[in-house]
Every structure is written in structure tokens, then in C-alpha cells.
Amino acid sequence: xxxxxKVPRISLILIGLVCATVIIxxxxxxxxxxxxxxSQDHVFQISPDYKVKDEEVLTERNRSGQxxxxxxxxxxxxxxxxxxxxxxxxxxxxEIEGSAGIPPSFTQKGEDLKALEEKNSSRExxxxxxxxxxxxxxxxxxxxxxxxxxxxxxxxxxxxxDDSRPLYSGFGCKRWLSGxxxxxxxxxxxxxxxxxxxxxxxxxxxxxxxxxxxKRMENKTLAFIGDSLGRQQxxxxxxxxxxxxDRPDVLDVGREYGLVKARHAVRPDGWAYRFPSTQTTILYxxxxxxxxxxxxxxxxxATDYAMHLDRPPAFLSRYLPRFDVLVLNTGHHWNRGKLNAxxxxxxxxxxxxTNRKIADIAGAKNFTMxxxxxxxxxxxxxxxxxxxxxxxxSPRHFFNGDWNxxxxxxxxxxxxxxxxxxxxxxxxxxxxxAVKGTxxxxxxxxxxxxxxxxxxxxxxxxxxxxxxxxxxxxxLPGVPDTWNEILFAQL
Length: 491
Fold this sequence. Notes:
Blueprint: H1 7-29, H2 31-35, H3 40-44, H4 48-64, H5 73-78, E1 88-89, H6 93-100, H7 113-120, H8 123-126, E2 144-145, E3 157-161, E4 196-200, E5 203-204, H9 210-216, E6 221-226, H10 228-242, E7 251-252, E8 270-275, E9 280-286, E10 292-295, E11 305-308, H11 314-319, E12 325-328, H12 336-342, E13 344-348, E14 351-352, H13 356-359, H14 361-379, E15 387-391, E16 420-421, H15 429-435, E17 441-443, H16 446-450, E18 456-458, E19 470-474, H17 479-489
């Protein structure tokens, strides 16, 4: 046919169509070929994490007016210090090396975005005075909340000034605060020690408020059992909960625990108060030796007392089932003078002690501490909800003598001897060993309190004797408030 297609030409066209179809199919199906075509998701989508990061940086730049080259992500998160009244960090690397004699050991870690976002949501991190950076200019390790991470060592950290302190007035809280410990009512004129707050290094302590404490302790009882330093902690907590204000609604429930003033006694053996709004009870029982004391001859008024080193105080044995939180302490009454004055005779196994190692004062104290903590630990399975703490010893600061030989604590400059605790182990090694392997927690306050020699009653005691200073007890408000903040963070 003249105008028709010839067979060879038709064959070529068909072959071309078949080849084109094969190539197209291979292009679509082959991973090798599709590899060279960039994914739309890969090219055009920006990670939501980086969007958040960039928005936070821009927000902080606009807020602070910093130049682009001086602004980084870490400082953007950390420099929004507008809510708190913290005025100054009382610590620098030079000060650590010079005053404490121990160089700082900051762990440098790169922080992932999740950790930084957690920091950004943290109130304490938002209120930092300065961006938390190490000497190399990089971010320090992530801080965790002490209330969530009970593994945090709250005893390791630094003292900082805080204009929002104290948590109650030294002129008030007269219902619970003994006048002899209210330094605002004495002739003391410097009160810088009231403005210090403890900041753990690797975690953040939840801010204490009376409302939060009572809510956390709703329908629960907290018992302090120990010496006069335990009494100070008890009085401090009562003032912290009430803000130092009069609370007529708070009930005296001492009779429920036999805490009434005995005939001829100067004071009762303790006090107990209840907050009706939450049915929270706070009590203190005086037990300087933390062991059971029994009169050897009850018919004689001037009898000696059997000091049963291996038995808990009768009050603790009797009322333990009613406690939800227990804080124990002992220490400063363990000296020969106190034992002789109180006519205490050491007993072990129900008979007078004959063990020479235990007869030594240090040995007797250590034996008692281990015995009582072991007994409390044995009771914990019976009361699964009970949280028990042993508070490490509160340090004395007598210089150039003891309490009865001209010892003084005249320093009034806060933190003149150091500002930070960098050690991991407790300064009260005996207490740390006693709680090890038990369910009793160590409330470690020794090293951080050691830095506070300016916080004692000193020569301003109301009942002072000429030449005698009180370098054992603390002014309130003061250092024991921090002990209670650490306790609160662990409840």
C-alpha cells in the first residue's frame, strides 16, 4: 500500500515502546534508582525539636536584648531569673580552692534536648542567678529534682544568699520557738545568717511551704526523738509550717502521748501538736542518749539510772505504730561529765556492762546507735508506710576551748570558712555505717552545717554565764530550717 507503514518501521516502534515501559517500571521499583531522588520529607521537613530550640533562643534574645553571638541555648534557658529573690551565688572555683582546700570536680556532660527541656521546666533552673556553666564554658550536668530522685545526695552542694529568707520571723512564732533560741530577741545585731539557703549540687530541692508540707503529711504523724538539737529541729518545723504566725486552731495533743509536765519537772518530756485541717501531728520526745533509761531503785528519788544501750526508749517502743515519719538523733550527751551528772550506768543485756570496748564513751555511743537503728529496721516490715531517718550529728564550733573553758564562736561573717560541700561521703562516718544496709535513711546535715559557725547562739544567750558561749545550739530562724527542707524533699 502506498501510504501505509512498512513492517520494519512498525517493529521498531513496538520495540521502542516496550523498552520505554521497562525503563519506567525499573525506575519506579528499583531502590538503587529511587535513592537518587531526594525524599520530600527529608528535604523540606524541620524537626519539631529544633523548632522549639530556635523559638526558645529567639524568645530569650528578645527578652534579654543580648547579641546573637553572645546568646546560646543553655544561657537562654537558665538566665530567666525574674521570679526568685536569690541575689548572689556565694561560690566560685577560686573560693573553693582557697577556702575549702579542695578543687571543684565538675562532671562535664553533653546534654541532650530532652534533658534541656526538663531543665527549662524546672523552677529552680529558671531562677538561677547565673547560667550554670563550667569553667570551660559548657553546660554543667543535668540537675534532677530532689523530690523525685531520692538517690540525690542533698548533703553535697553550696550555700547561696536568698532575699526571700527567712521562712518565718525571728520576732514571732512565740508559741513554739523558745526565747533562748530566738536571736532576734537578744542583743545580736547581725542577721546575715538568716538569708542563706542550701542548694544541692546535683538536684533541686522542692520549695518548702507549710501548705505543701501539711498536704503531704495529711493524716500522718511525724516524730522527732533525740536531744536538744532534735528539739530545735522540731521547733524550727513548727515555725516553718505556720510561717511564724499564731495558729489558734493548732491543737496541743501531748496528753495522747503522755507528754505532760510531771510534778517537780521543769518541762514535759516533749510536745505534740495537731493541725486539724489535715490531721497532721508533729511531736518531739526528749531522749538525749536514744536508749532506754530505767531507775535502778524507783523508791529512791536520787537513784541511779540503768542506761540500756541495746534497748530503744520506752516511748519509741510504745508509740512507733502511730508514727508515719520518724527522725532520730543523739550525740552531744555522750561524754563522761553528762553520764556522771545524770547518774547513768551502762547496761547491756539487762545487766551492768562489763565490756571494756563498750565502756569507752565513743564505743558506747556507737554500740547504742547501731543497736537502735537495727531495732527500728527490724520493725519496718510491720509498718510498710513508715519512713525512718537518722539525723547525722550537728557540729559544734567551740574555738580556743570548750563550753566550760573559754571556748568561743564570735565569728559573725557568714561562710567565712567555706561555702560548698564537695565530698560524696558523710562527715559523720559512724552514722553512715550504722544505717548502711538498713531501711533507715541518713539525714546527712553535718558537713553543710559545719560551714555555718556564725549561726550559733554564741555570747548572745539570754541566760548566758560570763565567759560561757553557746556554740552548740543554733539561732532560729537558722540552720535547722535547712535540715527540715532536706527532710521535706525526701518525704
